[in-house]
Amino acid sequence: MIDSIDKLSPRKQQALQTRKKLLEAGQETFLENGFQKTTIAQIIKKANTGYGTAYVYFKNKDELFMILMDDLMNRFYEVAEIPFKPQSKNEALELIKNQVHLFLTLAVEEKNMMMIVKEAIGVSADIDQAWYKIRERFINRISIDIAYAQENDLAKKNLDPSLVARGWFYSNEMYMWELVHNEEKYAMDDVIHNLVSIYGNGLYE
C-alpha cells in the first residue's frame, strides 16, 4: 500500500493526506460532540485545512460520517465472511456461536463510535439509508450460510433462507444496541447462549 502511494504524484499524495486528516478529525469531533452537534466547520478547524478544500472531498458531514461508518462496518464484515462449511449440527452451532461472540465483542469495543452511528441513523435520512444497505449485505451473507446448511442436510429445508437470515440479523442487531448502550440488563454470554440456542434449534435438524 505504501509503495503504491509513493508512486503517486506529490499532488495526489497531498490530496490523500488531506482526506485522511479530515476523516481523522471527523472521527475525533463526532466522538467529542456527538453527531448532531458536530459541524463541518469544527472538523475543518481540527484538521487544520482550508474551508473550501474540505468540500473537495466531502459535500457535508453526513458524507464524511458514512465513510467512517463504512470503515467500521468493514471490520464487522470480516466476521461475517469467516468461512462457514460445517459438517455437523454441533460444528455449525460452534461456528455460529463464535461469530456472534466476535460480532458483539467488536460492537462493545467500538461502543463509543457505535453510539454515534445509532444517533446518526435517527437524524440523517442518508445515513439511515446507508445503514439499510449495510443490513442487507449482512443478511445476504447469512442467507448464503443457511442455504449451504440446507444443501448439506444440516438445516430444515422448508424454511426460507432470506427470511430466516433477516430475523437472525435483527435479533443480533437488537442485542448489539443493548450491549453498546451498556444498560447492563444482560450479560453477553447469556445473550449469546440464548440467541444461538433458539436459532440453532429452530433451523438445524
Question: What's the SSE blueprint?
Answer:
Layout: H1 2-6, H2 10-33, H3 40-47, H4 51-57, H5 61-80, H6 89-109, H7 111-123, H8 125-151, H9 161-180, H10 188-203
Helix pairs in contact: 2-3, 2-5, 5-6, 5-8, 6-9, 6-10, 7-8, 8-9, 9-10
Can you walk through the features of this model?
The protein is mainly α. The chain has two domains: 2-58, Orthogonal Bundle (Arc Repressor Mutant, subunit A); 63-203, Tetracycline Repressor, domain 2 (Orthogonal Bundle), CATH 1.10.357. The protein is 79% helix and 0% strand. It contains ten helices and no strands. The protein is elongated and about 60 Å long. The N and C termini lie far apart (46 Å).
What would the keywords be for this entry?
205 residues; mainly alpha; Tetracycline Repressor, domain 2; 79% helix
| N-to-C order of helices and strands | HHHHHHHHHH
Name the assembly state: single chain
What separation lies between the terminal Cα atoms? 46 Å
Overall mean pLDDT score? 92
Helix/strand class: mainly alpha
Largest sheet: none
What's the CATH superfamily of the largest domain, by name? Tetracycline Repressor, domain 2
Helix count, DSSP H or I runs of 4 or more residues: 10
Strand tally: 0
